[in-house]
Structures are given as C-alpha cells and as structure tokens.
Amino acid sequence: MHSTFHARDQQTPNASTYGTSYDSTHTDLSINSREVIIADQWLVLGKIGEGSFGEVFEVRDIHTNKYYAIKRETMKIKRPQLHDENAMYEIIAGGEGIPRCHWYGQFDGFDCIVMDLLGPNLGHVRHNVSSMELDIAVDLACQMVSIVEHIHNRGVIVRDVKPDNFLFPANCQLPEAEMVESMDEFGMPVTTYKKSTCRQVFTEQWGIDKPKIFAVDFGLACYWRDPETGKAHPDSKKHIRSKTGTARYASINVHKGRSHSRRDDVESIGYILLDLLLGTLPWTGIHAKNSKAGWDRMRQLKMDTFMSDLCAGLPQGVLEFVEYPRSLQFTDQPDYEKMRRFLQGCLPGGAYSDIIKSPFGGEAKPTDNYDIIQLELKQLQQKQLEEQRQRELNHGQHGNDGDNNDRHSMFAMDDLTHQLPASTVPEIKPSSQVRKDSAASQSSLKKLLKKNKAKKVGWNTWKHDQAPWNPKTDWTNDEDPALSMAKSWGDDQKVGAWGASPGRQDQNGLWDQSKDVKEAGWGNTQPSWNAAPTTHQTHTVSWKKTEDIKETNWDGKQAPNDSWRKKADDIRETEWNNKQPTWNDTPCHQQAHNDTWRKTDVTMETKWAETLPPAPQPTPDDSWKVQGGDSIKPASSYQRTPDSSKNDKRHRFKLENSGGWQQQDDTISNFDTTNTSWRTGQPGTVEQKRGSWQSYPTDEAPLQQHRPQQQRRHHFSQPHQRTQQPSSTNTKSRYGDEAPEQRPYRSDAKNSGVSTQGDASQVDGWQRKPGSNAWQQKR
Ligand SMILES: Nc1ncnc2c1ncn2[C@@H]1O[C@H](COP(=O)(O)OP(=O)(O)OP(=O)(O)O)[C@@H](O)[C@H]1O
Q: Where are the compositionally biased (Basic and acidic residues) regions (predicted)?
C-alpha cells in the first residue's frame, strides 16, 4: 500500500526527533521572518530544501496539526514549471513511491504545492555514509525501477532521474559522521570524521532494514505518449537542441541530443546504482570551461568507459542492468521485470552474482572497499583524459573545446543540474522587418522558421529564448534573480512545457515548421489593429490554409480572446468570440498581428508580434482637475488598487491624507470631499491627466515601476509575459484555452469610470478623435 509520511504523528516511534533536522540547509526561517499561514491552513515552519528553481518548506496544517512540505516557485519566473509539476503529480498519483499532493495554489506571489513531508534524499544519504552495501543498493534500485515503471505506465517520463530526487521518509534523519580526535605525527590534534556504513545507519539509527523511497521533482517530466492517440509522440524522435536533466546521470542518447524516452530514465537508474555502489562515477567532479564543454566531456567519458571496467568487482547483474537500457530503441518499452531480475540476481547465490574481474588484474575488489574503487576510478579517468588529449593533439584541436586544464576558467560540472545552452546554434538577430505587416515580413518570417527547422528544434525543446524575433533584451531583468540565473545557465535548461502539456496551449515560443506544424498567415493589412481605436476594429484577415488545418472565419469584430476546440481527427479550430475586452482596453497600443500559428498534435502556440509605442510615463506632478476648475490636487496623493479581494473590475481608492479606502464600483463619486477641496461627481465630471493614478496589484506591492517596464518588455516579448498576472489571487491556468489577456497599462481611465475627455485625450503620441472616444495616433 502506498504509505505516506505526511504527519509527525503518523511517523515512526522517534517522531519527536525527526522533521527538518535532517537537512543542513534548514534555517528555521519562515517566509519574511514572521508567521505565515498559507491559504488559512498551512503554517510555515522553516525551509528544508531547495533546488534550481523551487524552495521547499516544512508546514503544519493548523487544523489537524499534521506536517507537510510545501514547494514554492516565484510567479515572476520566466518559465514557471510548478503548475506543470502539479499536473504531473495528479497524473501519476496513487503509485507506490509517489508523494501525495494536498493543495496547489498561489500565495504571496508564489505558486505553491503542498505535499507529503519527506526526509533526506538519496544523494544526501550516500554522501553521509562510508559505503553502501550491495543488497541495500539493489533494493533501492528495484524501488526506483518500480516507481519509474509506474510513471511510464501513466504515459509520463521523468527526464531528471537522479539521487537527489528520491527521498526517504520524513522520520529518517540525515546520518551524522562521528568525530574522532587524534594526534598527527607532530603531536598536533587532528579531527577526523568517521562515517557509518549505510546498513549501520538504516538499522541502528533509523531502525529499518529496507526504507522506502519516494520520487519528487517532476518539473521536467513530460508525456512520452500522446494521451489522445495513445501513441508515442511523433515529434519525440527528433533531436533536441538543448539537453534536459542532470548531466551526471544523463543517458548517452540524451548526451547525443536525442529526445528523452523511457529508455533514458532507466539508463539513469543504472548510473545511480553505480554511484551508490562505487561512491562516485568516472565523470564525477570534472571541470569544464562551459557547460557545453562539460556535457561533451561527460559524453566522451561515458562512451569511452567500458562498463565492464567500471563494474569490476561488482556482480554481473549490475553490468547487465547498466548495459540493458543502452540497447533499447527510442520507442521500446523497457522490460522492468527483467531489470529487477538482473538486480535480484546480483545477491549471493543469484543468477547474476558472479563477480566481474578487475581490468587492473588481481583479485576482484569487494564492493565496500571504497578506497580501492576510488583509486581505480581515478586511474581510469586519468587514462581516458590522457587518451582524449592525445586524440585532440592528433587532430590539432587542443584547447578548443574546453578540455584544457585551466581550472580557473572552468566550473564544476557537478554544479550543473539541468542543462545546456545551445551554444552551437548561431543566434538569429531580430529583424525589425519581422514585425511589419507586410508581405515582405511574412516571407522573412517564413525564412526564419525554415532556418529554425534546419536547427533541429524538437517538440519537447523549450525554444522561447531562441525565437528570432525575441531579442536578447527580453531576458534583461536585473530585478529577478531567477531570470538572471536562467540566463547564466543557458536559457533552455527547463524544458517541459512542450512535452508536458498536451492539450494545453503555451502561447510562447518558437516552433519549427515540419510536417505536423501548421501555419496560418495573417493578412497584410490590419488597419484597425494598428490604429487601435477602442471601438472600430475591422479584421481584414486572411488565412493561409496549409495541410489539414481548418480555416478560421472572422466576422469582423474578433479579438484574440479565443478558445480552442478540438474538432475531429487531430484538427483544431479557433473559435473567436466577438468581444474584444482586452484589446479594447489598450487604446495606446499599436498592435500588429503578424502572427503565425503552430499546431502540433498536442500543443498549439500563438506568436504575437507586437509593436507597441513607448509606454506612457507617469508624471508625478500631474494634477487632477475638477471640471469647473474648482481645485487642483497632486495626483500622487491618490492611489488606486484593483480590488483583489473581489477580483472584479471595481477599484478601491485611497485618499492618502485621509487614510482609509473607499471602494467604488465605477465612479469615484463618494470620495471624502471634506478632507480636501476635491469635488467629485459622476463619470464625466472629472478630468484626468496622464499618469494620475498609481496602480497597485495588492495593497502592499507597488506596481508602478514594474508595470511600465513590463509593458516595455512586451515590446519584444513573447505573449506569455502578458498572461502573467501580478495578482496573487490569480489562479487561472496559463495553459487555459484562452488567448493572453492584454493588461491595459492605462486601464485606469476605463475601469474607474472616469471620463477621459478633455486633457486625457492626449497620451504620448495618441489622441482622442475630437468628439469621440476613439483613439488615433498623433501625426
Ligand atoms: N516533499 C518533500 N519533503 C521534504 N523535502 C523535500 C520534499 N520535496 C523536495 N524536498 C527537498 O527539497 C529539495 C529540492 O526539491 P526539488 O528537487 O523538488 O526542487 P527543484 O528546484 O525542482 O530541484 P532541481 O534543481 O532538482 O530541479 C529536494 O532535493 C529535497 O531534498
């Protein structure tokens, strides 16, 4: 039965001592150093772990007093993945070794998943024991095979199988090394640490012979099988341009740039098994000039290492287990039972228990003789490096690919958790022509797509950052450490959205134009969009029909507020409704639909090429004028916030000096007029000059600086940025079947009900048409 460890009282006898103490990173800091209760239920206790993108905290359910873990990810991140991870947890729920999720939602600008609380991970434990006995490693590997088998049976592949993603139960504490004081040859005191063996830890400290493990972190997981057709995804055979997962445990096929399939997950388990038994791998600890060089070197080492050399001293079954996945084809289903047989056969008396002879001669080494193994591995590694150096010298390539020994200019590959920039692919400079609504731009877009095709972009590759129309500035966001980190790592570490979300739409990215990709051209003239008046939009849009895609009819007043619906046999159609709420809201934006559509079996994307005029800058000294000229008050005294509690179009207004909020529906007629000389009235009586309002997503977090910047980024950006909602109350799926909402920068005028006549008729190059609400560009 699936056992869970989500509450202290459900744990083992030594429940009082377990918990977060296993993790040295535990800080006892709750978010913002104050009591934080998430969703009125989960009291944050302290941080217990973190990965490249997520942070994990221990929380207590204040209603039941049970303990859980919460993983959070900032919603500002360029490529959020917790949402997908939650979806993956749902898909694989109920399996042995899969933690249960209890809540998913947004809090304080973070996506959060509450799940069963677990303990130290396999990597931690291996690091803290002197050696791991064969039967223990075999048992753990068998559990991993079964967990991965379950996940594969649900149509999903993990793509990041590594020791750090297998966790022991929460009642298991990280083993501590025993401190031993002694004297060195000069009589000086020396402190050494003696680690226990794994068996000692399990039996003596944890009181369990064979602890259970649980898999976590499905941020990179994706479907290997199309849930609609039940067949392997057609695109998944393509080459990927950037590698996914953790280099140390990546399969050779992934190193070669092939898409992940089930065989790669099980090959990674083989490397984990070797790591557990040997304590290291020949390619552990290597340094490289850049991550690409590191991945390349690891690939070379993996390919050059005879597994029989590596497995010397280990039972034959280990070798069989490691080599078996390498023989699998892309679509092959691994024979999990056979893999477990190899493992079980390793145990004394088993069918695969013969010990493999060491290539260095002499007796076979015992598996717990760590020093000898380390020495032999070092020799092996040296030998391989020497051979490689020699090869390079012969080819006159020495030093060209990061294989020099200048360690100062290198970084440790072990630090590299995810993946590589596609540094071999030349970046395509953004072309201004691409954004133009002209026939020329259509053809240049096609050229770019064609170029991209030549670059072997695969269906499960995150391609956003390589989008030719997406200039580098798109990544510039110094305020967001997560983004700058992503940048420094090569922007396509975290793949997943493509593969992960069949049936959902990701409005971002660049796509390749291959058989299953459909393109729809947009007519060359979209005068109404360019002019962007609020009311008169006429879509003279032409569609190019390719292959089996259906055309979408436009009936004059459409907005990209569409929903997709699947018709028959793999054909999707766009339904456009006639409302244009979002586009209408943005009179000061120039929008050009220079779009292409891509359809794959499972996803569809929209690329909105957008040219926006510079966002209007608020001028703090702008004033409010009351019609009739009674009084003038600095607009900065007023703040406006969307009423996030109501999540509707009403706004609250704050008169700074008077304190207190006043909520209005669509007017500001009830302002506290006693405090100031303000006179308010019905819509139409107050004039507004630009920049008068300051928008706040919540009562606390000013957005004023942020929003214009975001808007400027839209100048270049992919549409998903527009879909990001700053409000913490936004729980809407980013993959929902809607087009991205246009967040109006100047929604104040419309939403507040304040008339925008008079002075407000001019906004940074735009002006109201005399006598009408329509906007037109200044000439
Ligand atoms: N349910 C849990 N209970 C206790 N600790 C957890 C739990 N989930 C994760 N952790 C700890 O937090 C660490 C980071 O979690 P996780 O791997 O999910 O984050 P990540 O950012 O996705 O990591 P990665 O860099 O591998 O992608 C894990 O290695 C583990 O030690």
A: 384-409, 734-749
Asked if pLDDT for residue 329 goes beyond 50, the answer is yes
CA distances from 331 to 153, 177, 261, 325, 567 (A): 13, 45, 7, 12, 28
Q: Whose CA is nearest to atom 23 of ligand 1?
A: 51
pLDDT tens for 472-528 read 222 222 333 333 232 222 222 222 222 222 222 233 322 332 322 222 223 332 322
Phi-psi region of 187 (alpha: psi -120 to 50; beta: other; left: phi over 0): left
Token pair 């941080």 is found at 47
Predicted local confidence at residue 449, as pLDDT: 43
Task: Say whether pLDDT at 138 is over 90.
Answer: yes
Give the residue extent of every domain in the chain: 8-116, 121-385, 432-607, 623-703+746-777
What kind of fold does domain 8-116 have according to CATH?
Phosphorylase Kinase; domain 1 (3.30.200)
Closest CA to 734 of 547, 507, 534, 527: 507
Atom of ligand 1 nearest to the CA of 494: 27
Distance of CA 190 to the CA centre of its chain: 46
109/233 Cα distance (integer angstroms): 34
| Pair of tokens at residue 775 | 């906007």
Residue ID of nearest Cα to ligand 1 atom 29: 164
Alpha-carbon separation of residue 457 from 92, 191, 209, 514, 632 (angstroms): 28, 54, 47, 10, 59
For the domain 121-385, what is the CATH superfamily, name and number? Transferase(Phosphotransferase) domain 1 (1.10.510.10)
Name the residue with tokens 């919460």. Answer: 70
Cα–Cα distance for residue pair 226/502, rounded to 1 Å: 7
Q: What angle do CA 224, 230, 234 make, to 5 degrees?
A: 55
Per-residue H/E/C for 650-696: CEEEEEHHHCCEEEECCCCCCCCCCCCCCCCCCCCCEECCCCCCCEC
Tokens of 223: 């479907």
| Whether the CB of 501 sits within 6 Å of ligand 1 | no
The CA distance from 343 to 565, in Å, is 47
* Interface confidence: ipTM more than 0.90: yes
For residues 498 and 273, the answer to whether their CB atoms sit within 8 Å is no
